[in-house]
């Protein structure tokens, strides 16, 4: 079947961008920066933050690497102490259990936005309960300003029969 082509298509004329030696070059004047506009810095992952948040007890660490190590060790110790590992056995789970947890240390140093993922919803709830008990910290800094820092933590434990 042959269809009639009745639709009018507007022809687009593409202008020539070539220039020649006679064409005048126009100087563009400098654009002044807006004063008083504050740059908003998005949340920064823990791995790349300029100055990591400082967990209570890690204040004496002088560089970022030592502060990161101290913070990770303190959070791990806290979670190991507070987490109810007997819960997995109560739920009839066995073997290695892994709970992926992510949270944000906000620009005031508080733990917020806790997300957890596990095989069982009660393990997720328990992980969130424990992370919610973390103490307030000195906030992380990016370009001299306090910012939110995203922290990921795997909680792994073995259920013994």
UniProtKB/TrEMBL annotation:
Gene3D superfamilies tied to this protein: 3.30.1150.10
GO BP term, example: transmembrane transport
Domain TonB C-terminal: 88-158
A Pfam entry, by short name: TonB_C
Protein name: Energy transducer TonB
Lineage, highest ranks first: Bacteria, Pseudomonadati, Bacteroidota, Flavobacteriia, Flavobacteriales
